[in-house]
Design brief:
By secondary structure, the protein is α/β, with parallel strands linked by helices. The protein contains 17 helices and 25 strands. The strands form six sheets. Strands 1, 2, 3, 4, 5, 6 and 7 form a seven-stranded mixed sheet that branches. Helix 5 packs parallel to helix 17 and helix 15 crosses helix 16. The two termini are 46 Å apart. The relative contact order is 0.13.
């Protein structure tokens, strides 16, 4: 039985949706009366066919256009998802309600936030495609009575071989991003092939530096359709991830070619297809495919710093992407350029192996203790949910402005929790910053892909002086055996690890497709004018070219909408 508060919140949500139903298809003014002046609407494929957010007075007009275009109707409280609830979001008290509706293309889900002090007005609304009408379940085959007929394994081998057909979709990159979108496409019965240049599925995690673990907790990182075992640790080690990706590929029947190089492709506007070249076992295969999804991660091409004097250094120079272990550096001086997560993890690893480590800071960096502080950001979207689908629904319901406001509040709280660590770092000469307008590490990740460190112990080594810290601006030049400082002193080093980040996706696109395709596709990552990640999981300026990357949660959530957009194109 519902208590009085639950009944009140349900009645208020039902009343708003009833008025909304009446307003759909009427003049803009009727819809405008249902929204606050500072409202936001986020759409995920349902009404616009893409990922798009708009804010302010234009929302009612844009929403009316989207509703009419999509043929949306039958808005009602969702019968099985989260019930209406009163709570605080981004510092504001709201009534949050999940609803369902239909369009000509599919069954949709949405979430509306009504202002608690004026529940006749919505502050935010999110609309998302839940399931396309044409999805259809995978057809079950009749039990084969002919014992000589191809069995399941025979059929899988034939499907993987692609001897007599080309895939509809080619996924370039076989990490968690590539496998997630391949699983989503498989669920829609879309013929896709994943290609990866590594020798073994999961090697893009397996071959990374020795002590790598995920820095957020297991619940956030699940992949579609197959949850992690409940016996797993909260923070998953890289080799567990690698082995899981191998298992996931088999369990989800994903077609995957290892040791395969994607050599490039040309777009044919007349046939609306790509002419693709891949090399496998020394042989080049030509394919015609409708769609290419780049899933090569935001860290596919290492970025090397422009330091002219680095050529004068005679010691070993490697990028963080190539660092594996510190075994051979015991008792030897080493330098690590950069102060992001990879730099700290590598520095801590080298220190543990007895190296004399100096970290070189090039720009201010945010530091946040992995527990509890780093996890508090994810806590904005986590609740006591029975399903990860409900967790993801809440996650996607936040427009950009609310994300920023929420993260700023969290960052202010985190700075207080981590005060001792942060003051110790500043006393050691470490330069700190907290993201644009103090919005913290998640926004730094979404805009630049780095610039922060989840502290798992390296900060204490810096504070205690066990790992030395110098500022790059105080270096005069690299010399054969280390660096000469501006003050004339000398610091020796046998190794320089460049933890200096990665090139943008555009760099890789130009290499594989040429500058024209790069320019048509547009900037990848960061935010666009529609308050969404730029050209991620949505149509780009180049037909048939798509991108997926980012955290496990991003790939899980937004891969569904990417797969739906491709399905709509293929089924048209």
């Amino acid at each position: 039985m519902l208590d009085a508060h639950e009944t009140s919140e349900r009645l208020l949500a039902e009343a708003w949706l009833a008025r909304f139903n009446e307003a759909v298809g009427s003049a803009n003014e009727a819809v405008a009366d249902l929204f606050s002046t500072d409202c936001h609407w986020r759409d995920l494929v349902a009404l616009t066919g893409e990922l798009r957010t708009c804010s302010g007075p234009i929302v009612p007009s844009a929403l009316v256009t989207g509703l009419a275009k999509a043929g949306a109707s039958d808005f009602d409280l969702h019968p099985t998802r989260l019930p209406p609830v009163r709570l605080e979001r981004a510092g504001r008290e709201v009534i949050e309600a999940v609803f369902t509706f239909t369009t000509t293309l599919g069954q949709c889900t949405g979430l509306v936030r009504l202002l608690a002090d004026g529940p006749e007005h919505a502050w935010t609304i999110m609309t998302s495609m839940e399931r396309l009408h044409d999805e259809g379940a995978r057809e079950e085959e009749a039990y084969a009575k002919d014992v000589r007929a191809p069995n399941w394994n025979d059929q899988r081998e034939a499907a993987r071989a692609f001897q007599d057909r080309d895939p509809d979709v080619l996924v370039v990159g076989g990490g968690h991003a590539g496998l997630t979108i391949a699983a989503r496409l498989r669920a829609l019965n879309i013929d896709a092939l994943v290609v990866d240049r590594e020798k073994r599925i999961g090697d893009n995690w397996r071959l990374r530096y020795h002590n790598l673990k995920l820095h957020n907790q297991i619940r956030v990182n699940e992949m579609p359709y197959l949850p992690f075992p409940k016996t797993w640790p909260r923070y998953i080690p890289k080799d567990m991830i690698a082995n899981w990706l191998e298992f996931y590929t088999e369990a989800l029947e994903i077609n995957f070619w290892t040791e395969t190089n994607f050599d490039g492709a040309e777009w044919d506007d007349a046939s609306r297809t790509w002419s693709v070249r891949v090399t496998r076992s020394g042989k080049t295969r030509q394919m015609r495919v409708r769609h290419i999804i780049m899933a090569a991660s935001t860290s596919a091409v290492p970025k090397y710093p422009d330091i002219p004097s680095l050529k004068d250094f005679d010691g070993e120079k490697i990028h963080a992407a190539d660092f594996e272990t510190g075994d051979k550096w015991q008792g030897r001086p080493v330098m690590v350029l950069g102060t992001g997560t990879s730099s700290h993890d590598i520095s801590q690893h080298l220190h543990a192996h007895g190296a004399d480590v100096t970290m070189v800071q090039r720009s201010p960096t945010m530091v946040v203790n992995v527990e509890p502080s780093a996890q508090i950001y994810d806590g904005l979207y986590l609740g006591d949910f029975e399903s990860i689908d409900d967790q993801d629904l809440i996650n996607t319901s936040f427009p950009l402005d609310l994300i920023k406001a929420s993260h700023k509040l969290v960052t202010d709280r985190v700075k207080e929790i981590d005060r001792k660590t942060l003051e110790g770092l500043e006393n050691a000469g470490f330069r700190l910053e907290y993201g644009e307008d103090g919005t913290g590490w998640p926004m730094k990740y979404r805009t630049r892909g780095g610039g922060y460190y989840f502290n798992i112990g390296c900060s204490e080594l810096i504070i205690n002086g066990e790992i030395d810290l110098i500022q790059y601006n105080n270096i005069g030049a690299f010399v054969s055996d280390g660096v000469k400082m501006i003050d004339g002193s000398h610091r020796p080093s046998d190794l320089v690890v460049m933890a200096t980040g990665y090139e943008t996706q555009g760099h890789l696109v130009e290499q594989l497709f040429g500058a024209d395709v790069r320019d048509r596709a547009g900037r990848v990552w960061g935010f666009n004018d529609h308050q969404e990640m730029s050209n991620m999981w949505t149509r780009t300026g180049q037909p048939g070219l798509w991108f997926t990357a980012g955290a496990f949660s991003q790939c899980r959530i937004y891969g569904r909408f990417l797969a739906q957009q491709i399905a709509i194109d293929l089924w048209a």
